[in-house]
Design a protein that fits this description.
The chain is of the alpha+beta class and about 220 residues long. The chain has eight helices and eight strands. Among the domains are: about 60 residues, Winged helix-like DNA-binding domain superfamily/Winged helix DNA-binding domain (Arc Repressor Mutant, subunit A), CATH 1.10.10.10; about 70 residues, Ferrous iron transport protein A (FeoA) (SH3 type barrels, Roll), CATH 2.30.30. The radius of gyration is 19 Å and the shape is globular. The chain has a six-stranded antiparallel sheet with strand order 3-8-4-5-6-7. Helix 1 packs across helix 4 and helix 4 crosses helix 5. Bound molecules: zinc ion. Zinc ion binds next to helix 4 and helix 5.
Length: about 220
């Protein structure tokens, strides 16, 4: 199994990937909180293993082999998160950090057993798709809250897990996958979004609203 550091690079490359260009050294450094120089060094090493193709100034992309390794880490991470949340009753804002550590130690067999135990789930507790054993991810057709016009009734399907403090706040407000809300107002000058939550209203700054992905609530007449 690759080292935790290598696994974190592969995972970051997978998550930062955009069509038709490589991921830049700076983007990776920002995601992994390391210096640009260490990223360059590591990318050269990884391109020697055949998992990453890297050309200075053109950025880095995963090879098919690297992509397979990256989705295997993501699969472990997301199944562990769901296990911690659903079976161990750990709160939504605690599971990411725990899974970040466990994902490097858990074997495929153990993770497959958890998968079976939970009846082959397709989404992690944040609403992100769990890759299957072949590394396939089911696309979710959702949009960030910042794209939703006022008056629309929506269901939260995905709440990004990258910033623990933000997630703790959202969980404390009950803004978790499955929650239905109405967009009350959108302030176009700064991108913040006001939600109607039952009888009260809650203003979310743009950085928060961008990390919340929703689909239309078709089951509601409100
Ligand atoms: Zn996570």
């Amino acid at each position: 199994m690759p080292s935790p550091t290598v696994e974190n690079y592969l995972k970051a490359l997978f998550q930062l990937a955009v069509p038709e260009r490589g991921v830049s050294t700076r983007e990776l450094a920002g995601r992994l909180l390391v210096k640009d120089a260490s990223v360059t060094h590591m990318l050269k090493r990884l391109s020697g293993t055949g998992m990453v193709s890297y050309e200075p100034y053109r950025g880095a992309t995963l090879t098919p082999e690297g992509r397979q390794a990256a989705t295997a880490v993501l699969r472990r991470h997301r199944i562990l998160e769901l296990f911690l949340h659903r079976m161990c009753r750990l709160s939504l804002d605690k599971v990411h950090a725990e899974a970040e550590r466990l994902e490097h130690a858990a074997s495929e067999d153990f993770v497959d057993a958890l998968d079976r135990l939970m009846d082959f789930p397709t989404l992690d507790p944040h609403g992100d798709p769990i890759p299957d054993r072949e590394g396939r991810l089911r696309g979710i057709d959702s949009r960030p809250l910042t794209d939703i016009p006022p008056g629309a009734r929506v269901v939260l399907v995905r709440v990004e897990d990258a910033r623990p403090e933000a997630l703790t706040y959202l969980v404390s407000e009950g803004l978790v996958p499955g929650r239905k809300v109405t967009v009350a107002r959108r302030l176009d000058f700064d991108g913040s979004v006001e939600l109607q939550l039952g009888r009260r209203r809650l203003m979310l700054a743009r950085e928060l609203a961008e990390g919340i992905h929703v689909t239309p609530d078709e089951g509601s007449a409100e």
